[in-house]
Amino acid sequence: MKNLILLTSAILFSTLFYRQGIGLNLSLFTLLTIIVLVINNKTIIKTKIYIIKIFAYFITGVVVFLYKSDLTIIANIIAFFTLIGSISELKSSIYIKFMNGIYTTIVAAFSLYFDKQTTEIQTVKKNKINYVYWLKIIGIPALFLIIFISLYRNGNPKFNELILKIDFSFINLQWILFTGLGYYLFYNITNPITIDPATSLDLNTGNYLNKNEIKHLSPKKIKEENKLGIVLLYLLNALIILFLITDVLYLSELYQMTAPELSKQVHTGVNALIFSNLLAIAIILYFFRGNLNFYDKNKGIKNASFLWIFLNLTVILITAIKNMEYINSFGFTYKRIGVLFFLMATSLGLMSTYFKVQKTKNLWYLFRKNTQIAFAVLILSSTLNWDKFITYYNINYAEQLDLKYLINLSDNNTFLLKGYAEKGNLNNNDKFDIDVRHNNYIRKLRDNSWQEMVFDNVKITE
Amino acid sequence: MNSTNNMMPILLKAALFATVLFWTLILSEKFEKGYFIIAIIIISIIPIFIICSLAVLYTILPLFLLEKKDLNSHEMFQKYFPYYAIIIFGICCFFVVNSNFDEPEFMFAITVFFTLMQSWIWLCKTGNKIDKSKK
To answer: Where do transmembrane segments lie in this chain (chain A) (predicted)?
Structure first.
């Protein structure tokens, strides 16, 4: 039964991907993978975490069809590996799941083969393949089918026509090899394995710092470190407050700035912010790496750290305001959205550092939480048609429109631009560029095979 | 772990495996008949052997030689194979994506990947036999 499922999946895999671009096929592959995994292990639809992972993977599959982009394809691949890794070991951290997912997908067959070879005691004798049985199962029905088809072909000209129309020309040696690759892939994902040292280490490592596992320092050294931390963090707090005051004053001048000045201000601000936040997290992690977490008089250094986290968050907020002002004036671009994403990621990083210190968590906690957040953000961000969003915002709300930038985005905004060109007062050059792009896209859509179809194909047939 | 003592047969097997796989993939796309292609396939064993040997000797063998603990082949396999497979897979993917999914590069990457994975199995299996015979 399992072999039949694998074989069917492999043939479907070939049908979907052999000499095809990405489109509907990836969405159908997502569905096929989920069905095969559920058939192979029915318990996965009863566990909440599996369902969440399956849902995330399914969503990324759907968005590939709705608005294919590099981001949606990458999100789909990452969700696929994470789901497979979850089946390998449910309780591991998300980055271990991802690694286990890759490992299972690419070489589970090799690993299982090697394990089989090296297992010294084999209690169960390997069943011999019953060739006669398989010959009967496949050979006899095939023989009768051929006989009856030739009989019916002679008896009914319509049936004969239908049989002649069936085109098996796509089946060649390369197609068979590709199907073999599909079989290998499905065999691997239905036989999940784990990277042993990494997974067991991850499972045995909790989220909390253990007092007994820390290398103990003498009370004198702890006291000195506490004092050093307090002095350093309060000085840094004073510095950041001074920086914030000047930055707030500078905010009022934003409205008078020219575009290049504002751009320079935002980008240099972000670069400084990247470094200062990484340094902030590193300093806090250094002081709270061990003994100070359990020191009786650590309230002072903790408060200084929390204040510093709060002030860094304020710097992020001010940079976000500058970026938003920039966006209000000149519209969205990927770079500006990237800045917003970075600011969000930094804020989340600082918040997880706060919880690490507050609740005496370890470094693993930080990795786990931050990778979980990154995964969620990736999946959520893939659900938005960014090119269409950027185009819609810029043509409707931006004070200054950079049409060349919009024309150079992916095909996902083509229809929106075409509509804008038909309504708006554009110069002939821009209209011409948009028309050329629109026509090329329509041609591309019409050339798509059913496997490569995207949602825009449905739109043009309406 | 003494699998490294008997490298030559493994390198030869790897070269033969890679030749068969590579030419099967190439000829599956466009089958050519004649003595000329047979001659090319036979001659290609030499560069394929060199590439395979370099890849195995420079990427897999150092792991066996540099391992300070006296691990048996199964432990070596458990410890290094997963990361090795993931890294080689990443490099092959990078190579394929960079070549814009061109078929010859794709076939080359598939050959490299499967040959190296199979070489690991041969290397560890050889070590395993030697380990057992020592006991």
So the answer is: 20-38, 50-67, 73-90, 131-151, 163-186, 228-250, 270-288, 300-321, 333-355
> What is the model's pLDDT at position A144?
79
**Any idea which residue has 């495996």 for tokens?**
B17
Task: Please tell me the least confidently modeled range out of A168-172, A397-401, A456-460.
Answer: A168-172
Amino acid at site A73: I
Tokens of A313: 């968050």
Instruction: Give the model's confidence band at B85: pLDDT under 50 very low, under 70 low, under 90 confident, else very high.
Output: very high
Coil, strand or helix: which one is A114?
helix
Interface of B with A in 22-81 (CB under 8 A): 24-25, 27-29, 31, 73-74, 77-79, 81
Strand partners, A330: none
User: At A35, is the pLDDT very low, low, confident or very high (cuts 50, 70, 90)?
Assistant: very high
**Which of A53-57, A150-154, A298-302 shows the lowest mean pLDDT across its residues?**
A150-154
CA-nearest of B70, B74, B55, B65 to B127 is B74
The predicted model gives A410-439 an average pLDDT of: 89
ipTM for this model = 0.89
Residue contact A118–B73, C-beta within 8 A: yes
Query: In B, which residues are within 8 Å of A74 by CB distance?
Result: none
* DSSP per residue, A9-22: HHHHHHHHHTT--S
The two structure tokens encoding residue A133: 């049985």
Burial B73-102 (b: 16+ CB within 10 A, else e): bbbbbbbbbbebbbebbeebeeebeeeeee
- Do B67 and B81 form a contact (C-beta atoms < 8 A)? no
Looking at residue A129, what DSSP letter applies? Answer: P
pLDDT for residue A39 is more than 80: yes
Residue with structure tokens 């690759």? A181
Mean of pLDDT values over B14-29:
90
pLDDT given for residue B135 in this prediction: 45
Q: Which residues of A touch B120 (CB under 8 A)?
A: 110, 114
CB proximity A196 to B under 8 Å:
yes
| Cβ of residue B5 closer than 8 Å to a chain A Cβ | no
Contacts of A117 in chain B (CB under 8 A): 121, 125, 128
User: Would you state the pLDDT for residue A33?
Assistant: 96
Q: Do B85 and A172 touch (CB under 8 A)?
A: no
Domain boundaries, position B104: 3-134
Three-state SS for B91-135 is HHHHHHHHCCCCHHHHHHHHHHHHHHHHHHHHHHHHHHHHHHHHC
pLDDT digit string, tens, across residues B86-135: 999 999 999 999 998 888 899 999 999 999 999 999 988 876 554 545 44
SS3 assignment, position A67: coil
Flag whether residue A37 sits within 8 Å of chain B, measured between CB atoms.
Answer: no
Contact at CB, A196 and B78, closer than 8 angstroms:
yes
B121–A102: do the CB atoms touch at under 8 Å? no
- Asked if residue A23 lies in contact with residue A65, where contact means CB atoms within 8 angstroms, the answer is yes
DSSP three-state, residue A208:
strand
Which of B110, B121, B126 is the mutation pick for testing A, counting most A CBs within 10 A?
B121
